[in-house]
Amino acid sequence: MKKCSVFKFKKGMMRSAAPVLLLIIFGLVCFSCNSRDRSGHDLTGQGGEKLPKYQVLDTVDRSALGNGIYADVLVESLSKNDSADKLADIAKRIAEIISANELSLYCSEDAKRANFSESYSKSHPGALEKCALGVLRDNSFQKY
Q1: Is 67 domain-assigned?
Q2: In this predicted structure, what is the pLDDT of residue 13?
Q3: Backbone angles phi, psi at 127, to 5 degrees
Q4: Within 10 Å of residue 96's Cβ, how many Cβ atoms?
């Protein structure tokens, strides 16, 4: 009886193809996970844009008071020139990821420090005005 095969492999060919196959599978898995963070939250926005790099500077758990979690978030790639809709979309997605119901958005750490320290604000004039972007409360964003 003759063997019929669509693929004809030479001896040892499968061994050399295995690393390539594993690399392709790894790439596909990474690509499929690219639009989600580690907790499974979608990182793409309404227009398909990815969530910019952000850093949670501070969180305060006010659950005992019935106020939930407050967070200060730094997104250095944003500015006052960005639209309120764009800032709101980013703030809402970050709030969902970090489980915060209130969030202040900044484009520099100086702005956050100036917001909480009058002496820091005086020694860094304009920091707050330039980079305090807005606040998200009860899923409603207010641009500064």
Answers
A1: yes
A2: 53
A3: -60, -45
A4: 13
Spans of the chain, pLDDT less than 50: 29-42
Residue 10 within a domain: no
**Cβ-contact 78, 87 below 8 angstroms:** yes
Give the pLDDT of residue 49.
73
Of all helices (H) and strands (E), which one includes residue 137?
strand 132-137
Domain count, the chain: 1
pTM metric for this prediction: 0.67
**Which residue segment(s) compose the domain that 123 sits in?**
55-143
Closest CA to 125 of 137, 138, 110: 110
- d(CA 130, CA 133) in angstroms, rounded, equals 8
Query: What local confidence, expressed as pLDDT, does residue 36 receive?
Result: 41
Q: How far apart are CA 144 and CA 31, in angstroms?
A: 37
The answer to whether position 65 is within a domain reads: yes
DSSP string, 10-73: -TTHHHHHHHHHHHHHHHHHHHHHTTB-TT--B-B-TTSPBPPP-EEEEEEE-GGGT--EEEEE
